[in-house]
C-alpha cells in the first residue's frame, strides 16, 4: 500500500511532467509560427523583386567593335573545362553564331546548370543563351550524404545560436503561468466580496487568464525569434483563419456557447439539471465544456453547445419543488373522510415544506378504487424528493390503516354467458336441488364477491 508521502510525490511528479509537456508544446507552436512568418516574408520579398526574363535580349546590342565568335567560344570553353575538372559539368560543348550561345552537355545539379547559363549570358557581346544542358540522373550517395550532413550541421548550429533566446522565451512562459495564477487569485478575492454569481466570476477569471496567456506567448515569440513582430504574427493567423475556422468549428462553437452560458445562463455550479437523458449536478463550467456529476456518481463531460442548443430543466432553480403521487381507496370508503386522513398524514411529515399548501383532490374513478392526487412541496434536490416521497407514502399508509380505510387490490370479475356448458349450475337449479331454504353460492358469485 502506498503511503501519503509516496502518493503526494507521484502527484507532484505528474503535475511537473504535465507542465513540462505543455511548455514544450508551446515552444513547438512558436517554432511553427516563426517558420510560417519567414515563409511569408520570403514570399513578400520575392513578389517585391522584379522578375527577370531569361530569354530577354541584352540591354544594348553593339554594332561596331564587337568580339569575334571564336574568341567568345574559346573563353567559355576554358571556363567550362575548369568547371568540368570540379565535377560540375561533363561533355560541355559551346556553339556560337552571331552572338547566340548554345550550351550542350550534362550538369550534376540544377544549380550548376543555371550557373553555366549565367556565365554565358554575362560574357561580353553575347546576345542570347540557349541552355541545352541536361541534369545527370545518376544517384551519388556521397554527395547526398554530404548535403544531408551540411543540412544537419546548419540546423544544429542554428539551434545553438538560438538556444539562449529559447531559454529566455521559456522563462517568459513560466512568468506568464505565474502571472495567470496570481491574476486568478486576485480576481477571486476581489469578486467574492461583491456578491457576484459564481458562473460570472468563472467567466471573468477564464477570460483574464486567456488574455494573459496570449500576451505572454506573443512576448515569448518575439524574444525567441527577433525577426517576429505582432503584425507578422497576425498575418500568419490571417492566412490560416479559413482553414482554422473549418478545422476547429466545433471548438469555436463550444467556446462561444461557454461564454454565453457563463455570462447569463440560469444554472450555476451546484445546480441539478436535466438535459435529455442526463440528470446530475453541475460541478464545473469551463469555456469549452461542462462537467456534470450524474446521480449514480459518474462524471459526464458535456460540450457547451449541447447544453446551449437543447432544452435544459434546472431542478434547483427554486429552493422548493412540488411532488405528486396517486393514492387510491376502495369504493366502499367515505371520500371526504379519506381526503382528510390523507391530508393530515402528509402535513405531519417533517420533509414537507409549506404545510398549508398540501393539496389532496379526488382525481378519477379507477378500475378498483377512487384515486386521489396528492401534491406537496419539498426540497428541490433529487435526494430531498426521494426522502420526502418515502416519508409521505409511509405516513399515508399508516394513517389509512389506523382509520380502517382500505387501499384495495385490483378486483377481477369473471362472468360466464352459459355457466351450464362449463360445468357450473345456475342459482335456480341449485335451489331446486337443495330445497327452497338452502342456497349454495355458485362459481360466478364467488368470483364476483
UniProtKB/TrEMBL annotation:
Keywords: Cell membrane, Membrane, Transmembrane, Transmembrane helix. Residues 428-449 are annotated as: Disordered. Residues 68-137 form the BON domain. Its main location: membrane. GO terms for cellular component: plasma membrane. Pfam families: BON, MS_channel_2nd, MS_channel_3rd. GO terms for molecular function: mechanosensitive monoatomic ion channel activity. The chain crosses the membrane at residues 20-37, 165-187, 207-225, 237-265. It comes from the Bacteria. It is found in: Cell membrane. It is a multi-pass membrane protein. The keyword Aminoacyl-tRNA synthetase does not apply. PANTHER family: SMALL-CONDUCTANCE MECHANOSENSITIVE CHANNEL. Belongs to the MscS (TC 1.A.23) family. This is MscS Mechanosensitive ion channel. It comes from Rhodopirellula baltica SH28.
Amino acid at each position: 500500500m502506498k503511503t501519503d508521502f509516496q502518493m503526494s510525490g507521484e502527484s507532484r511528479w505528474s503535475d511537473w511532467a504535465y507542465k513540462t509537456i505543455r511548455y514544450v508544446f508551446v515552444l513547438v507552436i512558436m517554432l511553427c509560427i516563426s517558420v510560417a512568418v519567414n515563409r511569408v516574408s520570403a514570399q513578400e520579398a520575392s513578389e517585391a523583386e522584379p522578375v527577370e526574363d531569361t530569354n530577354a535580349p541584352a540591354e544594348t546590342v553593339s554594332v561596331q567593335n564587337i568580339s569575334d565568335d571564336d574568341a567568345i567560344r574559346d573563353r567559355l570553353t576554358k571556363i567550362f573545362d575548369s568547371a568540368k575538372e570540379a565535377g560540375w559539368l561533363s561533355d560541355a560543348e559551346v556553339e556560337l553564331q552571331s552572338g547566340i550561345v548554345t550550351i550542350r552537355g550534362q550538369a550534376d545539379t540544377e544549380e550548376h546548370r543555371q550557373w553555366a547559363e549565367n556565365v554565358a549570358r554575362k560574357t561580353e557581346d553575347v546576345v542570347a543563351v540557349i541552355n541545352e544542358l541536361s541534369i545527370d540522373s545518376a544517384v551519388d550517395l556521397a554527395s547526398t550524404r554530404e548535403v544531408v550532413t551540411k543540412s544537419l550541421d546548419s540546423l544544429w548550429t542554428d539551434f545553438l545560436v538560438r538556444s539562449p533566446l529559447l531559454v529566455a522565451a521559456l522563462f517568459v512562459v513560466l512568468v506568464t503561468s505565474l502571472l495567470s495564477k496570481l491574476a486568478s487569485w486576485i480576481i477571486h478575492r476581489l469578486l467574492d466580496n461583491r456578491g457576484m454569481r459564481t458562473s460570472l466570476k468563472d467567466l471573468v477569471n477564464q477570460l483574464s487568464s486567456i488574455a494573459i496567456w496570449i500576451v505572454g506567448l506573443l512576448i515569448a515569440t518575439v524574444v525567441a525569434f527577433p525577426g517576429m513582430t505582432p503584425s507578422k504574427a497576425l498575418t500568419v493567423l490571417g492566412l490560416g483563419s479559413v482553414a482554422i475556422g473549418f478545422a476547429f468549428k466545433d471548438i469555436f462553437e463550444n467556446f462561444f456557447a461557454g461564454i454565453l452560458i457563463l455570462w447569463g445562463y440560469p444554472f450555476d455550479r451546484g445546480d441539478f439539471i436535466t438535459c435529455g437523458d442526463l440528470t446530475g449536478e453541475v460541478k464545473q463550467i469551463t469555456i469549452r465544456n461542462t462537467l456534470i456529476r450524474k446521480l449514480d456518481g459518474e462524471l459526464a463531460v458535456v460540450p457547451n453547445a449541447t447544453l446551449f442548443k437543447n432544452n435544459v430543466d434546472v431542478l434547483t432553480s427554486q429552493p422548493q419543488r412540488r411532488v405528486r403521487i396517486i393514492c387510491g381507496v376502495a369504493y366502499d370508503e367515505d371520500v371526504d373522510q379519506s381526503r382528510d386522513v390523507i391530508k393530515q398524514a402528509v402535513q405531519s411529515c417533517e420533509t414537507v415544506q409549506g404545510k398549508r399548501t398540501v393539496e389532496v383532490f379526488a382525481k378519477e374513478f379507477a378500475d378498483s378504487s377512487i384515486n386521489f392526487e396528492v401534491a406537496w412541496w419539498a426540497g428541490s434536490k433529487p435526494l430531498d424528493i426521494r426522502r420526502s416521497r418515502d416519508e409521505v407514502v409511509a405516513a399515508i399508509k399508516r394513517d389509512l390503516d389506523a382509520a380502517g380505510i382500505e387501499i384495495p387490490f385490483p378486483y377481477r370479475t369473471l362472468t360466464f354467458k352459459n355457466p351450464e356448458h362449463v360445468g357450473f349450475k345456475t342459482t335456480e337449479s341449485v335451489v331446486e336441488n337443495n330445497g327452497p331454504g338452502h342456497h349454495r353460492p355458485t362459481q360466478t358469485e364467488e368470483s364476483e364477491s
